[in-house]
Amino acid sequence: MTTKSSTYQDIDDILILGLLALKEDSSAVFWNKQTKNLFFCKLESNNQLDLTSSKAIEILQKGQKVDLIPIEASLSIYDINDRIYIWFKSLSNGSTFRFLILVSDDFTRWEIVEQSQVQDDFETNPVYDPQRQILISYTGKDKIYYQEFSDLNRVRKSSHPILELRESFYDCQAILPKICIWTNDGILVIYQSNLTGKHLNRIQFSRAILAKNKPEFVVHRDQTPIWEHDQKDDSIYSYLGFVEKQGKISIYLKDEKQQLFVFEIAIPYSKIIHRKLSAPIKKINLKREDQNPVVTPLPNDWESMAVFNPAAIEIDGRVHLFYRAQGFDSLSAIGYASSGDGVNFDERLDKPIYTIQLDQNVTEPSPYMSGGGMGGVEDPRVTFIDDKLYMLYALYNGYEQARLAMTTLDLADFRARKWNWTPYQYLSPKPTVWGTGNKSGAVFPEKINGKYVVLHRIWPNISIDYLDDLDFDSENKWLEAKDIIPPRQGMWDSAKLGAGAPPIKTKDGWLLIYQAVGKYDGKYKIGAMLLDLENPAKVLYRSNNPILEPEDWYETTGLKPGVAYPCGAVIKDNKLLVYYGAADNVVCVASADIEPFMYDLMHQHESHPMHKVELFYGI
Questions:
Q1: Domains in the chain with CATH codes
Q2: Which three-class secondary structure state does DSSP give residue 3?
Q3: Eight-state DSSP code of residue 601
Q4: SS3 content of the chain, % helix, strand, coil (to 5)
Q5: Closest listed residue to residue 152, CA positions, set 242, 210, 83, 94
Q6: Residues 394, 440: Cα–Cα separation, whole Å
Q7: Which H, E and C letters describe 56-91, residue by residue?
Q8: Per-residue pLDDT reduced to its tens digit, 101-126
Q9: Which label site among 16, 250, 377, 432 has the fewest CB atoms less than 10 Å from its CB?
């Protein structure tokens, strides 16, 4: 045998279709575009980064060359009971897809088993059990199934999928099974999920564990990707294969130039599963300002008990707060303060800037009361659009569940400190069932695809509506939940969540500061997510930990200890300033430099670096 060393990209007619470790060796299957033949060869490597192939062995089909065209990224190689199985999808006659299985005992003689015609979006990966043979497959890219079979021509598909798309998670668009490994703890499935959006094309890999004796039962599924990489137009990657050695999995990818790359992850074991199988993450945190609390109650009768949950906007170089205030009558009104630096508030008015007249006197607490309030204007969010301020808030009449309402103020009046607010309009209908009250309303600061976009909260989700206008003067027009962003099970925001500040536009997406509660401690915490610029229902990134949770003295003592509730955020002088109510008692601010904050939000997982692989041919 003669050998010629050459980098992989110099071999123009050869495509590598699959790669896998067999015993102590690695192997690969190649396709020659000119001769239209598959061939098999073993690979040698000391470090997974330099691969050298043995002389190629042609794969024969009953003495003939395989004349079907294999589909790239659909081929898998497995060693099952000392037999080599090559599984791939093939295109015949330019239009028909067939699923083929090649079997060999000695790498030289191959038997081909041809399955029936399959869909274009069918892919399968086997995992072996001595008592049970199992296939993991998908159809339609939105569901992953498992199948059992006694022989290769008789496959029974499960009646229910084992994994499905998860709305508002990173794996909300497609899930493609790539690796199945039988482990002591169950069947490990590693699947690929791609996330695309404006200026975004991300490839991701995640893990799920299936019960050994009942594969339809998912023991665990990652809440965050174990690996992700943002692709560029000139570097789109496809899965090639994996090598499993010494408790680690080396996953190989190739790009459109046929260059090979590899990254490595660990195989999870019981101790990892039991402490929540997930990719290690970097924590993202806001820093509390030393001046906290920045706004506190004053002896004015209307704000003598509590000031909290402030909306915030920046106009004319100053940060303006519209905060909820309560006096000893426990009725909520809106107060005003402003600051040149966003931290030290040197302007504050001694009278409320917005109140409402309740339709009846309230003398007794109601089960629907919030923040100790007996009624009034609660938890404002303010957005500046086209020389007008839009203030959304929860209107609580003192005896029924809160409804979302809106009022507006012209910019000229605001600058003149003339509080000529328009009469409020209800944005949500009168609640008739517990849990249908509507709160946490916020308008995006500009139209998206010609529509106004409004976030609101119908328990327990963030709801999203798209509107031609913001006129709610009709009793037949209410906000709807055309899209939702739900809580995440097993995470810090597992019980309920709502918009905090109105979204802030950045080059990477809409930055949404939100508030959420977990199922176990009942504390209000602050998180961040990045929404797609063109489709705000698409969550590109979401903080895996609270960026701030109630821990300091002013957050743990007050009318409602254990609450950090944001209603406003601005970016001022390249710093993100988040304004929140602490313990339903005082106003606080926390901050972060915006560039590292955004970077950390978009790179939360422990790095599994990807390395380029050089492949040398034996010819």
A1: 8-281+606-618 (2.115.10.20), 287-602 (2.115.10.20)
A2: coil
A3: H
A4: 5, 50, 45
A5: 83
A6: 7
A7: CEECEECCEECCCEECCCCCEEEEECCEEEEEEEEE
A8: 777 787 677 777 665 555 555 556 55
A9: 432
Q: What's the CA gap between 596 and 576, in Å, rounded?
A: 10
Q: Which of 340, 335, 337 is nearest to 318 (CA)?
A: 340
Q: 156-175 b/e with 16+ CB inside 10 Å = b? A: eeeeebbbebbebbbbbbbb
pTM here is 0.72
Amino acid at 582: A
Provide DSSP, 199-252. Answer: TEEEEEEEEEEE-SS-TTSEEEE-SS-SEEEE-BTTB--EEEEEEEETTEEEEE
Tell me: the pLDDT tens digits for 158-189?
557 888 888 767 788 888 888 888 787 788 88
Structure tokens at 192: 């690929």
- What stretches of 462-564 show up as alpha helix (H) in DSSP? 553-556
Q: Within 10 Å of residue 371's Cβ, how many Cβ atoms? A: 23
Q: Which two tokens stand for residue 243?
A: 């090598």
Exposed/middle/buried for residue 315 (C-beta within 10 Å: 0-12, 13-18, 19+) = middle
Measure Cα distances from 329 to 72, 298, 351, 445, 585 in Å. 71, 15, 16, 35, 15
| Cis, bond preceding 365 (omega within 30 deg of 0) | no
